[in-house]
Write a structure and sequence with these properties.
Blueprint (H helix, E strand, L loop, with lengths): L1 H18 L12 E3 L2 H11 L6 E2 L14 H9 L2 E4 L9 H7 L4 E4 L9 E2 L15 H4 L16 E2 L6 H18 L4 H25 L7 E6 L3 H7 L2 E7 L8 H12 L4 E4 L6 H10 L2 E4 L13 H18 L6
Parallel strand pairs: 1-2, 1-3, 3-4, 7-8, 7-9, 9-10
Antiparallel strand pairs: 5-6
Helix pairs in contact: 1-3, 2-6, 2-7, 6-7, 7-11
């Protein structure tokens, strides 16, 4: 299957190089492909009324480990614009992205001007001397230079889980699409203003909702909540799998059990991961188990998904941190 996918990518990429026209000279909106649902939702909102972006990874699958299907490879090569978080997140499909890089306009969200990137957590040392629950402390360290594309390994890629970053994404995507498709620039920019207002309201609502559990400690199966923690004051104190591509060791599991004894109230997993290990830990340590979804599984792809996903994420976390009955 993998060889077939690579063959399709190489074949259609070669065809694209010989037949593609300058994207700035297109007579219709560009064919936009977005890798994951949360980013796709924001792009769809920016493009609303102009065009509809395609979604690459539609299944309940993690971009850390996702293997492209032949139909997805065809989508990848039919696109004129590809939008992805970047190599810090979609590690499993990076080679496929690299194979078409020269024949498409590639927009890397983690390289957008003003995006706030956080180092991957080790759960052992504070970041740059900052307290681990203060978003504002990190704002002076946001990433804003696209030339550093190859220097961002070791960064946390789940950057959309803080509403302030979503605003940066919307602004950046609207600006870049406006440059590529100047005829529709007024629509992109007008849409972006509406979405940013909506994101501001979302951020205020979640900030208010999470006040009652601010400072609450919890554990995760795979560390994916750092941006949410920084924005809204909760605190993940450990992860069963520090690297989603590497199985946890006995020492990792011992660290998790130790953190439970230090006051962790809950342990969370994501829908795309096997829950057997984390459920066993929850049962052994008598902490609450629940799922958090940061990708929009089960939600209809489109401009409303990001807002539905974020509200559900906040609500599910709050319930678990407040109620000993949730998830058990």
């Amino acid at each position: 299957m993998r060889l077939l996918v690579l063959f399709l990518i190489c074949l259609t990429s070669a065809m694209a190089k010989t037949s593609s026209q300058s994207i700035s000279n297109l007579s219709s909106p560009p064919k936009v492909l977005v890798t994951i649902k949360p980013i796709h939702s924001l792009v769809a909102a920016v493009m609303e009324g102009v065009g509809t972006p395609e979604l690459l990874i539609e299944a309940n699958s993690s971009a850390h480990t996702h293997q492209l299907k032949p139909t997805e490879a065809i989508k990848l090569n039919a696109a004129q614009v590809i939008i992805w978080v970047g190599p810090i997140y979609e590690t499993a499909i990076q080679k496929s992205i690299d194979a078409v890089r020269k024949s498409v306009q590639l927009i890397t969200v983690s390289d957008l001007q003003g995006i706030h990137l956080l180092p991957a957590r080790s759960f052992r040392h504070p970041v740059d001397g900052c307290a681990a629950d203060l978003w504002q402390c990190h704002l002076g360290h946001h990433h804003h230079d696209g030339d550093h594309h190859h220097e961002i390994s070791g960064k946390d890629g789940h950057l959309w889980l803080a509403a302030p970053n979503a605003k940066v994404i919307v602004k950046g995507i609207a600006a870049q699409l406006s440059q590529l498709d100047q005829r529709n620039a007024p629509h992109y920019l007008a849409n972006s203003k509406k979405i940013i207002k909506k994101i501001d309201e979302l951020h205020a609502d979640i900030t208010q909702e999470m006040k009652t559990v601010k400072g609450s400690k919890y554990l995760t199966y795979h560390d994916f909540t750092q941006y949410f923690d920084m924005a809204y004051g909760t605190e993940c104190v450990g992860a069963v799998r520090v690297n989603p591509e590497v199985e946890p060791t006995a020492a990792d599991l011992q660290d998790v059990r130790r953190e439970v004894s230090h006051g962790a109230k809950a342990i969370f997993s994501e829908p795309q991961f096997d829950t057997k290990t984390i459920r066993t830990i929850a049962d052994d340590t008598n902490v609450i188990y629940a799922q958090l979804d940061g990708l929009g599984f089960g939600l209809e792809a489109g401009p409303n998904l990001y807002f539905e996903m974020m509200r559900r994420f906040a609500s599910d976390m709050k319930k678990a941190l407040q109620s000993e009955e949730c998830g058990r």
